[in-house]
C-alpha cells in the first residue's frame, strides 16, 4: 500500500486561503456598492449625495481662494511663538476639510 501524497507544498494552502478571503472581501464590497447604488434610486438619497458633493466643491473653492490670503497673513505675524505658527500652518493645510465640515454640519 502506498500513501498518496499531494503534489502541492504545504505553503500553498495559506496562499489559497488568503486568495479566497480576498475574493470574498471583493464580493462583499461589490455587494455593498450595489446596495448603495440601489439606495440612490430613492430621490432623497441621491439629493443628499449631490448636496454633499456640491458642498465639497464649494469648500474646495473657498480653500483655494482663502488659503493664500491666510498664508500671507501668517507671514505678517511677528513675535508669535513657533508652536502657534506651526498650529496655524497645520490649520491652513486642512482648510478645505474645515470648510467642508462647517458647511456640511448645518445641512445634516
Q: What separation lies between the terminal Cα atoms?
A: 73 Å
Low-confidence segments, given as residue ranges, are none
Shape: elongated
User: What helical percentage do the residues reach?
Assistant: over 70%
Structure in a nutshell:
With 108 residues, this protein is mainly α.
Structure, described:
With 108 residues, the chain is mostly helical. It folds into 2 domains: 11-41; 43-108. 80% of the residues lie in helices and 0% in strands. The chain is built from 4 helices and no strands. Helix 2 packs antiparallel against helix 3 (82-93) and helix 2 (43-75) packs antiparallel against helix 4 (95-107). The longest helix is centred in the middle third of the chain and has 33 residues, at 43-75. The chain is elongated and about 60 Å long. The mean pLDDT is 85.
List keywords for this structure.
108 residues; 2 domains
SSE topology sketch:
Layout: H1 12-39, H2 43-75, H3 82-93, H4 95-107
Amino acid at each position: 500500500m502506498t500513501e498518496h501524497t499531494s503534489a502541492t507544498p504545504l505553503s500553498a494552502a495559506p496562499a489559497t486561503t488568503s486568495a479566497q478571503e480576498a475574493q470574498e472581501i471583493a464580493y462583499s464590497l461589490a455587494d455593498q456598492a450595489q446596495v448603495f447604488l440601489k439606495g440612490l434610486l430613492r430621490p432623497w438619497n441621491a439629493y443628499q449625495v449631490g448636496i454633499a458633493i456640491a458642498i465639497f466643491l464649494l469648500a474646495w473653492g473657498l480653500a483655494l481662494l482663502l488659503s493664500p490670503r491666510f498664508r500671507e497673513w501668517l507671514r505678517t505675524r511677528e513675535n508669535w511663538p513657533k508652536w502657534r505658527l506651526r498650529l496655524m500652518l497645520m490649520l491652513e493645510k486642512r482648510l478645505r476639510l474645515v470648510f467642508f465640515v462647517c458647511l456640511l454640519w448645518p445641512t445634516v
